[in-house]
Fold this protein.
Amino acid sequence: MSRFALNSRIFSFLRFSLYSLFLLLSVGLGACGLSRERRGIPADVEARIGTVSDDISAERYEKIYNEASDLWKRDSTLEQSTQTLKTLRTKLGKVESRALNSAKEMNNASGPLKGHFYIVTYRTKFERAEGMETYTLIEYDHQWLLARYFVNSTAL
């Protein structure tokens, strides 16, 4: 076998190997992207956020408090919680639209947020202003409970 033929075979093998590697990486990265997209926010977390949002819109503040986690109740009384939510509603108005900004799933063994929880942030357009809503939900007994709700807006 000539030296030229050997170099040509090596070149062909390397080119095939690089092409195969590129193809595998493309498929692998694409699959990772699909997996991440499919995971998103679990349906039960999204449903709880929808329920809390509906309750805020309907001014069912006592219901929100009663269905919240112990962390929420430890941080505020029913009266404080109600007053805060009423103030948000008065200054911002109802939610007109929201777009997911970020969602983080976490598991902590220590700190104020112990256990399995999600922190979900939305870019939100209210009737009178725009802002960022952050919902923190903690899993307790296979249910997602509101642990914290925060709105950041220049209108506040």
Q: What stands out?
A: DSSP finds five helices and four strands in the chain. The CA atoms of residues 65 and 109 lie 25 Å apart. Confidence is low (pLDDT under 50) at residues 13-39. The chain has two domains: 1-39, 41-152.
